[in-house]
Fold this sequence. Notes:
The protein is built from three helices and four strands, in the order αβααβββ. The protein is of the alpha+beta class. The chain has one domain (24-123). It is rod-shaped, with a radius of gyration of 25 Å. 10% of the residues are buried.
Amino acid sequence: MFNTRILIFSFAWLVVAGGCTSFYPYKMEIRQGNYLTAEVRQKIRVGMSRQQVTSILGSPLVNDVFHANRWDYIYSLEEKSRQVERQRFTLFFEGEFVKRIEDGQAADNKPSDGKVDVVVPAK
């Protein structure tokens, strides 16, 4: 009788455990930072004020005390402890206005380390 119960319990455990694809805990995706679409990044131009930039992009993720004229908008997405996507958008100010833009996001939505200086033609 006792062996029959152990056998039934073992069989039931194998059936239940066999339905599981893995015994690893669930890891949720983690989104951190400011996600900026290509359309939003294209709205930022050299010569815009800090207030205009904040109204379009929101406040920057990194606001360094030692580099007050630099705003970094950083975004990363992790799925199952693996980094899937990363964006970096940096604005450099001279006084209250944007002087230079570094867009670390290529057109095909893959990270790039190239620097892009946006120049507005004189009117």
